[in-house]
Write a structure and sequence with these properties.
4-stranded parallel sheet; globular; 6-stranded parallel sheet; about 270 residues; binds D-glutamic acid; alpha/beta
Length: about 270
């Protein structure tokens, strides 16, 4: 049995990379729904429907555990899948998201207790981060900003272009004007680490920028240790399969660029 990692496109590769670094022995299947990306501007119902299709496809291909390496899917679909769908599909399988492990770490990172969140319109409108944070660390003031252009910039390999400068700077300026006491900015979309170098050039050195990959990897390692009933089912041949709903040529060239080595994918339809 394998670990499935799902995203609407390439962004989840930033999570997969860190998970495989931390937990290299397991077998993984990555699925990017590139043909229907972006999810961040879609309705709650559509994101749920697409995410459920993806989870089922990963289960059918031998995954026992699926990580939604996508904040938008975690915000809009995770709870319904965990509560309503999994009991019917197979109660022994698991689906985990990326929002909770991120929120758990925030209090350790901020000194001012003023935190910024950059995410897709879907994640920001769901208010999932604010709701989780209110439960776990009510002393933290969260200022959110949706960045509707950032995912298309990444998916179209424009993250190093001058056009990207304009949109990156615009959202950062807005966030810091809204709350000048922010000392930590969470990249609450798995595509955004691909813009990290650019983001840093527009921020003062005292502001921390948080990417989710390493902390999701730590959280998964901890989860597997606490759940031997899941861990013992996972196969350990260090295998890796890449699936996309787009043509493989496009996926292979961009994914290889993001991962820093060449990969070969297969197309599936959901
Ligand atoms: N990478 C996804 C996330 O973390 C969403 C990208 C999209 O809009 O499809 O939210």
């Amino acid at each position: 049995m394998k670990i499935g990692v799902f995203d609407s496109g390439y962004g989840g590769l930033t999570i997969l990379k860190e998970i495989r670094k931390r937990l290299p022995k397991y077998d993984y299947i990555y699925l990017g729904d590139n043909a229907r990306n972006p999810y961040g501007t879609r309705s709650f119902e559509i994101v749920y429907e697409f995410t459920l299709q993806a989870v089922k496809a990963l289960f059918e291909r031998g995954c026992h555990l699926v990580i939604l390496a996508c904040n938008t899917a975690s915000a809009k679909a995770l709870r319904s899948i965990q509560q309503n769908d999994l009991p019917e599909i197979d109660p022994s399988k698991r689906v985990l998201g990326v929002i909770r492990p991120t929120v758990e770490i925030i209090p350790q990172l901020t000194s001012s207790n003023h935190v910024g969140l950059l995410a897709t319109p879907g994640t920001v409108n769901s208010d999932s981060y604010a709701l989780e944070l209110r439960k776990l660390s009510p002393e933290i003031k969260l200022t959110q900003k949706a960045c509707p252009m950032w995912v298309p910039i990444v998916e179209n390999n424009e993250f190093n272009s001058p056009g990207a400068d304009y949109f990156v700077r615009k959202e950062l300026d807005y966030l810091l004007e809204k709350d000048p006491l922010i000392d930590t900015i969470v990249l609450g979309c798995t595509h955004y680490p691909l813009l990290l170098d650019k983001i840093k050039t527009f921020l003062p050195d005292n502001i921390k920028v948080v990417c989710q990959g390493p902390l999701v990897a730590d959280s998964l390692a901890d989860y597997l240790q606490r759940h031997p009933e899941i861990e013992s089912r996972l196969s350990t041949t260090a295998g890796m399969t890449y699936l996309t709903t787009e043509h493989t040529d496009k996926f292979d060239s961009l994914a290889s660029l993001f991962l820093g080595r060449s990969i070969t994918s297969h197309t599936i339809s959901l």
